[in-house]
Amino acid sequence: MPYSYLSHLYCPKTHERYAADQVQQLSKAGAPLLVAYDLDALKKAWKPADLQGRDASLWRYHELLPVVDPANIVTLGEGFTPLLPTPAIGHDLGIDDLWLKDEGIIPTGSFKARGAAVGVSKAKELGVQALAMPTNGNAGAAWSLYSARAGIKATVVMPQDAPLITRNETALSGANLYLVDGLISDAGKQVAQAVAEGGLYDASTLKEPYRIEGKKTMGLELAEQFDWQLPDVILYPTGGGVGLIGIHKAFNELQELGWIDVDKPLPRLVAVQASGCAPIVKAWEQKAAASEFWADSTTVAFGINVPKALGDFLVLEALYESNGYAIAVDDAELLAEQRKVAELEGAFVCPEGAALYAAARKLRAADWIKAGERVVILNTGAGIKYPDTVQVDVPLLQPGDRLPR
Question: If you count Cβ atoms within 10 Å of the first and of the last residue's Cβ in the chain, which end, N or C, has fewer?
């Protein structure tokens, strides 16, 4: 039985095929390339029972991942994050069956480690020696650390006001780190120029085909953790939207394999953005096929401050096909929810994850989320990576002071 059932790459706009055994970036049409597998052969050879006894990491799904030779796997133990019932905050939101999939405990402290693990492993397999990417912080940190483990030189450009912790992670890995006075779109221009000059593999979001394959394992894990019975609604913080695209791709592949019920509708996907940067929400409201650049974007949820996503059309397709929703929340709302989740559940979620609770509150109040539906919050990172978003007043004890009873 092959380690991977990788078949080829294809352009989602033209359906033109591309070889998966050589370095590829965008399609000729300028679209992200997606990975295809020989699902017909895999369906005959692979069953859910085959997962029993495998390591609790994303590599347990290696047949449905693009790395052909396991010797090329670069891992820090990523994947299979906990799926936790959260009844207290669920009661507060009016959602009785609310779950938290917490990516904050994954290596590097965010779900970006999934895309980095698979993306860097495949880059190693293809002989890449040096890569470059723009980032809002967490992706750059993850790709830098995994690249260091793989022996690949990383060059990373991020906005100068990116979270300090992610800057330190990137620099500590030995990557070439540069800052720009602007947004991730400005960092992207610098990377594009460097890539055009030659010698660097472009690891920008969706400009290589394999980050999405790492992110899709969140969907595979959700399906397995719920014993192949999918939830009704999944909320996801959407900047570049790779994880949302990947989760939708995972569910479609599981349907083709016959692992989940083809007669039941797939989960309704919810793209959550900040009101200060909501291009996907605007496009969804207009029923558009793609988004427009969001000028002067700003939000404390730095990871979703993406004014124009390369894969926006794929995000919107996933929303339309799943009968999903796109919604924006204010910074004040998400920060209030961050505190409430910590107080009620003991979970310190990142600002992007907190935005999902604010969105769930709105959608339940509007009865879009129905009573009795199973809802999953996908927290994409650890709150401790964003210390500046939390403001607390702590009393200073003086000699002779007594603690209140």
Answer: C
Contact partners, residue 176, CB within 8 Å, separation at least 6: 153, 154, 155, 156
Q: What is the pTM of this model?
A: 0.95
Residue type, 400: G
Secondary structure percentages of the chain, helix, strand, coil, to 5: 40, 15, 40
Over 90: is that where the pLDDT of 272 sits? yes
Evaluated on CA atoms 256, 258, 261, 263, the torsion sign reads positive
| Euclidean distance between CA atoms 214 and 209, whole angstroms | 10
Q: Tell me how far apart the alpha carbons of residues 384 and 392 are, in angstroms, rounded to a whole number.
A: 14
Contacts of 36 (CB under 8 A, 6+ apart): 7, 8, 9, 10
Q: Residue 343 belongs to what H/E stretch? A: helix 331-345
Strands 201-202 and 233-237: unpaired
In the block, residue with structure tokens 């909320």: 235
**Is residue 1 over pLDDT 90?**
no
User: Which percentage of the chain shows pLDDT scores above 90?
Assistant: 94
205-227 pLDDT per residue, tens: 999 999 999 999 999 999 999 99
pLDDT at 192: 94
Strands 176-180 and 325-329, bridge-based pairing = unpaired
Residue type present at position 188: G
CA 182 to chain centre: 23
Q: Provide the CA 214 distance to its chain's centre, in angstroms.
A: 9
